[in-house]
Write a structure and sequence with these properties.
Layout lengths: L29 H4 L16 H29 L5 H27 L3 H12 L7 H16 L14 H32 L5 H22 L4 H11 L3 H17 L1
Helix pairs in contact: 2-3, 2-5, 6-7, 6-9
């Protein structure tokens, strides 16, 4: 995972919430929003091991993902016409409240307190020989989930990720999206031919899986995580060169259709 920093750039402020007025839950979003800042001065080996950190964050992500999915099903079942801005705010606040409760239980289950887990995350995400990509991947899952519900994580991009390179990545990425859609359509035709009965949830899961597989290959090829890719999209979105590439990709897609 490339060098990153949270939207809370000052280290003493790393526990503060992105949303004002939620100081009581400050520790909650540290793990969701905090991205390692490349410090390489972490020397002491933490009590929480690398494998334990990964297990902790995988469990946190799994539980939180299930919680959010359950909440969204309830909201959709009620057919409530909730303004998008209000829904986004609610989801972020719900996520932060739930994560505070969940992490307390999970940390206790593994026998560590918040400070010990935090020290381990800093140790294994710091630049240098102790940096562990497995830990980065596990913690990024939680950050990605926070972004998915409307949270914000500001990242430092790799120095070599220029707008020109991002244009290449974007074109490859959109090609993967189109390929994933085609694969899903083929899957649907096969199901219909067999007369198979599947639920909407199963179809959505298959669509998401095919998309993840295709775009994952592209991101790995370019050495980027999904978090960094999204941050780069945001950074270059208004750049004339990138805008021209977006227009060209759209035009090419329309021509194929």
């Amino acid at each position: 995972c490339a060098g990153r920093r949270s939207a809370l750039s000052a280290r003493p402020m790393k526990r503060a919430l992105l949303a004002a007025g939620a100081a009581a839950a400050a520790a909650v979003v540290y793990y969701a929003t905090k991205a390692d800042d490349g410090d390489d001065d972490v020397e002491e080996i933490p009590s929480c091991s690398r494998d334990e950190v990964i297990a902790i964050f995988n469990k946190l992500s799994g539980i939180m993902n299930q919680n959010i999915s359950t909440l969204m099903r309830k909201i959709n079942a009620q057919n409530a016409q909730i303004p998008q801005a209000m829904l986004a705010q609610y989801l972020v606040e719900h996520y932060e409240t739930q994560l505070k409760e969940v992490q307390a239980v999970v940390f206790k289950e593994f026998g560590y307190d918040e400070d010990e887990v935090e020290e381990a995350v800093d140790y294994y995400e710091a630049a240098g020989p102790n940096r562990d990509e497995g830990v980065c991947e596990a913690t990024n899952q939680l950050r990605q989930l926070y972004i998915n519900v409307g949270g914000s994580v500001e990242l430092d991009l790799p120095e070599d990720l220029t707008v020109e390179k991002m244009c290449v990545v974007f074109e490859d990425y959109m090609g993967a999206v189109v390929a994933a859609q085609a694969a899903f359509t083929e899957h649907l035709h096969a199901l219909k031919a067999k007369g198979a009965q599947v639920t909407t949830a199963q179809l959505n899961e298959t669509r998401q899986l095919k998309m993840s597989e295709k775009v994952g290959v592209v991101l790995k090829k370019h050495g980027l995580s999904n978090l960094v890719f999204q941050a780069a999209i945001e950074k270059f979105n208004d750049h004339p060169t990138f805008q021209a590439k977006i227009a060209a990709v759209k035009a090419a897609d329309q021509t194929k259709k």
